[in-house]
């Protein structure tokens, strides 16, 4: 058993002698929760000299002995990343059928028959977000357990509003065939867009499976990914995600679809650049520098 001192970032002593009955940081967090019940493990951020202590780390790994001083930060009420994604993707899955089947609620004239473009887009968008929900539950392995629950409203705006309300309202309005941007309305153009969407969605799924297989369950292990798409791009999953939405844009010519796609790409580009930088920092020369961040040979 080890006794440690827990202090706040301001230096206030929270626990003079916290006894830890275990060998991991998670055991330490559970011991702290016993004294302060509202601070469950995911809500705690523990550091020693600015070095973050992760749940799976051992006490020996950080040389934690009797009287070691550990700094505590309250991260606030948390929600798991898995639940965050489930909530985010539920928005479009609820909103698109609402507009598609409930046209009388939103438009002056009811839709008697949806146009081919509307039917295809509704099918593609529903499959896309159902796929995302499946990946969230069955495929993704998260490097972080949770995030502050207050952030879920900001995160959900992107999906509930931009790809939900704003896109659904314009695409499913009576008689819609194309928007203000030129669309692929010919048979050849629509066929190309559909093939592009299917290819992109399947490719996105394959890259997510590769990433899953790199990280053993319950760990934060990071490895350099190789294989489908990864040999030329750091984040091919983001690249294929963008292509899938470009296919929707080409089918509809809708400004709302283009708006969502551009905003999504801008965010994914920032994530991809950060991931590439982190790979280089962690793996050095072992990481192939020729890999661009998100678009092959360009960005």
From TrEMBL:
Membrane topology, from the record: Multi-pass membrane protein
Segments passing through the bilayer: 243-266
PROSITE patterns, A to Z: S5A_REDUCTASE, UBIQUITIN_2
Alphabetical GO biological process terms: very long-chain fatty acid biosynthetic process
Cellular component, GO annotation: endoplasmic reticulum membrane
Pfam family, one: Steroid_dh
Annotated Ubiquitin-like domain residues: 24-70
InterPro entries: 3-oxo-5_a-steroid_4-DH_C, SRD5A/TECR, TECR-like_N, Ubiquitin-like_dom, Ubiquitin-like_domsf
Gene Ontology MF: a single term: very-long-chain enoyl-CoA reductase activity
Location within or outside the cell: Endoplasmic reticulum membrane
Species annotation: Neocallimastix californiae
Biological or metabolic pathway of the protein: Lipid metabolism; fatty acid biosynthesis
Keyword list, A-Z: Endoplasmic reticulum, Fatty acid biosynthesis, Fatty acid metabolism, Lipid biosynthesis, Lipid metabolism, Membrane, NADP, Oxidoreductase, Transmembrane, Transmembrane helix
Annotated catalysed reactions: a very-long-chain 2,3-saturated fatty acyl-CoA + NADP(+) = a very-long-chain (2E)-enoyl-CoA + NADPH + H(+)
Name by which UniProt lists this protein: very-long-chain enoyl-CoA reductase
Chief place where the protein resides: endoplasmic reticulum
EC id: 1.3.1.93
Protein family (similarity comment): Belongs to the steroid 5-alpha reductase family.
Known role: Catalyzes the last of the four reactions of the long-chain fatty acids elongation cycle. This endoplasmic reticulum-bound enzymatic process, allows the addition of 2 carbons to the chain of long- and very long-chain fatty acids/VLCFAs per cycle. This enzyme reduces the trans-2,3-enoyl-CoA fatty acid intermediate to an acyl-CoA that can be further elongated by entering a new cycle of elongation. Thereby, it participates in the production of VLCFAs of different chain lengths that are involved in multiple biological processes as precursors of membrane lipids and lipid mediators.
Protein's UniProt keywords contain Glycoprotein: no
């Amino acid at each position: 058993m080890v006794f440690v001192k827990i202090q706040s970032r301001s230096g206030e002593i929270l626990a003079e002698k916290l006894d830890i009955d275990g060998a991991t940081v998670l055991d330490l967090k559970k011991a702290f929760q016993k004294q302060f019940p509202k601070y469950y493990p995911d809500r705690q951020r523990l550091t020693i000299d600015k070095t973050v202590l992760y749940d799976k780390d051992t006490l020996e790994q950080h040389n934690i002995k009797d009287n070691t001083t550990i700094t505590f930060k309250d991260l606030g009420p948390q929600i798991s990343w898995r639940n965050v994604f489930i909530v985010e993707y539920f928005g479009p899955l609820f909103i698109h059928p609402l507009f598609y089947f409930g046209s009388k609620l939103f438009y002056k004239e009811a839709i008697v028959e949806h146009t081919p473009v509307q039917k295809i887009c509704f099918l593609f968008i529903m499959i896309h977000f159902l796929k995302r929900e499946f990946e969230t539950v069955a495929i993704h392995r998260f490097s972080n357990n949770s995030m502050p629950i207050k952030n879920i409203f900001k995160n959900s705006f992107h999906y509930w509003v931009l790809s939900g309300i704003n896109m659904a309202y314009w695409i499913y309005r009576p008689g819609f065939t194309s928007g203000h941007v030129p669309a692929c309305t010919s048979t050849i153009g629509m066929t190309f867009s559909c093939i592009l969407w299917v290819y992109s969605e399947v490719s996105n799924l394959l890259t997510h499976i590769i990433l899953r297989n790199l990280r053993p369950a319950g760990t934060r292990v990071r490895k350099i990914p190789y294989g489908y798409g990864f040999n030329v791009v750091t984040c091919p999953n983001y690249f294929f995600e963008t292509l899938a939405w470009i296919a929707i844009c080409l089918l509809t010519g809708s400004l709302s679809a283009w708006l969502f796609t551009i905003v999504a790409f801008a965010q994914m580009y920032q994530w991809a650049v950060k991931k590439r930088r982190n790979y280089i920092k962690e793996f050095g020369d072992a990481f192939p520098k020729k890999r661009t961040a998100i678009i092959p040979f360009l960005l």
